[in-house]
Amino acid sequence: MDIEVAVIGAGPVGMAAAAFLHQAGVAVRVFEANPERAWQSRATTIHPRTLELFDALPDEHGSLAARMVAAGNPVPATHFAALPNRLSYAGLDTSFPFVLLLPQPETERLLAEHLAEQGVVVEPGWKLADLTQDEQGVAIVSETGDTRRAGYVVGADGAHSATRHALGLAFPGTPASTMGFLADVRLARPPAQPHNWDCERGSYSALPLPGGIYRIFGHEPGDTGLTPEEAARRQAQIPDEAELRATLKRLADDDFGITEVLWASRAGDTTRHVEQYRTGRVFLAGDAAHVHLPAGGQGLNVGVQDAANLAWKLAAEVRGRASRRIIDGPQSYDAERRPIAARLAANTLAQAALMVTFTPAGKALRDLMSDLIGRDGDTADELRGWLSGLEISYAEDGGLVGRRVPNLPLSDGGTLHRALRPDRFTLVAFGTAIVPEGDEVVRSTRDWHGLAAVLVRPDGYAAEVWTTGDNITTDWTEH
């Protein structure tokens, strides 16, 4: 079969999935409904864990992550619910201790360039109409009747996923009750503070993007407490420059000298996620599997992390060497990523409550949460770990197995994350640890929590650990 995996959707999640699969030696092809790449700058934020994953994709610039950092605007802190006190990333144990602000068109351009350099084909203007599957593969059919066949399909085709509809999967959750504005603009006099909130007027934020552009977003009190029908009508009413100016003047007595509107839209708090990430030979990832308020720039990042979790497992299945534990067991794609979507839904709904409850009680809650973040204690650590992605874990018992392994320096001068490959596990030995003869091993110059060795999954999480005195043996075929 020429196409081992067909990816439906050439957004950041779909192209990331294709990149990881190709790196694992899988014959992958991407099908995109739109004839041209989207220019709207919807997602603008790339968090550290996503950059770590892209760092394992080598290219002529060193890695895809390096190429993205060069094109973006690194900032040392991020916000939770647009609260005044921000979460610093400066002390995080990562090679990327910052938030990277990079407009989605740039992210997609860099991913597309990477795929083209690797010889991965992206077919634009190919819109999925239906699919059928059997024990040997999946037939995908376009709206023009073009039929292709692949071993597996990854649906990364957004919130209105044709893949999900073809599978007949429900998309349970809650409809929008609020619908704010967002736009990318140029400003002659940007506001002094990035986030501003007033109990009577509403909220507005302005975040600097590369190229002198600002992402502005916010809500007025009338944007909240909507019925689903009211939210749908408001969502269809895209604000033009005159409306954006008027909105900002109501919120701040100043339109901040808007000189150009590059793109504008509406954003609501619709929150949904599927109850299964896999149906036979078809998988869902990113917005096709979960949608939520775009708070804290989490959507793209969680979607790319879906792709990284899936790619190495699917590559092993394509090659016939996957164990039951990663096909439909406790380490399967569905078992590990669906709980993350549930937590994401709760996280963004909580942010929505903090952002748009324009009452004295809402102000008191915001002040309380901002104060807790400002103390930089346990609350800040919990939120920082979740938003950055660095503390997302698949550990079942609170131990190290299932936790992310940091970017350990290696004795050859390299680093662990760039040494990872999506088609194999990496055995890292610390100090004088003895490993079985013939195993491929790298040695670290820094001990991770006092271990003798750790077996690292292709996506950077610990599969097995050994302490000093343990016999370091493993049946690689079990993984």
What would a concise description of this structure say?
Helices cover 31% and strands 24% of the residues.
In terms of per-residue confidence, which ranges show pLDDT below 50 for 5 or more consecutive residues? none
Mean pLDDT: 93
Query: Helix tally?
Result: 13
* Radius of gyration based on Cα positions: 23 Å
- By helix and strand content, what is the structural category? alpha+beta
Rough outline = globular
The end-to-end distance, rounded to whole angstroms, is 25 Å
User: What composes the largest sheet?
Assistant: 8 strands, mixed
- Classify the beta-strand content into a percent band: 15-25%
Q: Could you tell me the number of beta strands? A: 25
The proportion of residues forming helix, as a percent range, comes to 25-40%
List keywords for this structure.
five-stranded antiparallel beta sheet; 479 residues; eight-stranded mixed beta sheet; alpha+beta
Write the layout of secondary structure elements.
Layout: E1 3-8, H1 12-23, E2 28-31, E3 45-46, H2 48-54, H3 64-71, E4 73-75, E5 77-78, E6 87-88, E7 99-101, H4 104-118, E8 121-123, E9 128-133, E10 138-142, E11 147-155, H5 162-167, E12 173-174, E13 179-187, E14 195-198, E15 202-209, E16 213-219, H6 228-236, H7 241-252, E17 258-268, E18 271-273, E19 278-279, E20 282-284, E21 290-291, H8 298-318, H9 324-327, H10 333-356, H11 360-374, H12 378-388, H13 416-419, E22 426-430, E23 441-444, E24 451-456, E25 462-467
Parallel strand pairs: 1-2, 1-11, 2-8, 11-20, 22-23
Antiparallel strand pairs: 3-7, 4-7, 5-6, 9-10, 10-11, 12-18, 13-16, 13-17, 14-15, 15-16, 18-21, 19-20, 22-24, 24-25
Helix pairs in contact: 1-4, 1-8, 2-3, 3-4, 8-10, 10-11
Keywords: FAD, Flavoprotein, Monooxygenase, Oxidoreductase
InterPro entries: FAD-bd (IPR002938), FAD/NAD-bd_sf (IPR036188), RIFMO-like (IPR050641)
Domain FAD-binding: 3-347
